[in-house]
Amino acid sequence: MSFFTDGPRERPLFPVREQELFGYEGRPWTGPPNEHIVPALLPWAMPLGRSERTIVALRGVEVWPEAMTLRIAVYSRDRMDHGPLVAHRRIPDYNALLVGVLFPDGSRASSETISVPTAGEPHEPVLRVGDGTGSAFHQEHPVFVWPLPSAGPVKLIVQWLDRGIEETHTKLDGALLRAASLEAGELWPGLPKRPGNGVAMRQVAADISAAEHNGASELPQRLPRRAPGE
Fold it and tell me: Taking the model in full, what pTM does it have?
């Protein structure tokens, strides 16, 4: 006798067409490619900053072929405020929890500024904070960083003045991060590309570049205007 005794249900008369996953679009700066790639895992667990009642720590690093996700955890002896602890703000709150990365070549990225996905490859590193999970006394945030640093010391920087944590620098090994990226595996090699994959995004990027080059304040109008009453 089967453990699962209920048989398969009848399919609906007009079944909904199943959606298919298309191939990886190859814009690694937009975010972690969770649907296409299994990251390599570096079990780097270390404190990043500490005060009498609060600890900020690194729980580990997920390494993608061209980026990484830092798992930042916060532990507190008293109840923390609701909402994300690490957040991008239009006006930075320098008393709140801030996270930043300093690359070996001197380039940097931090949660001070709002970072949104772009059509074209950015000229500066990207740091984007994901939604946090946890409880009133423990939260964890995924912090996505692109690109992977070059070989050399990478500094992970945190500051939380409201909690008595001054600016602290923790060194990570860029060479080990790059070596780990070779272990990231593609889940579904050979998937077909999305029809028109990337064309629209590349066209928008080209329009923006052309407008900036020509000194135009607006992008070209790509859709025909409708006459009144149409």
Answer: 0.77
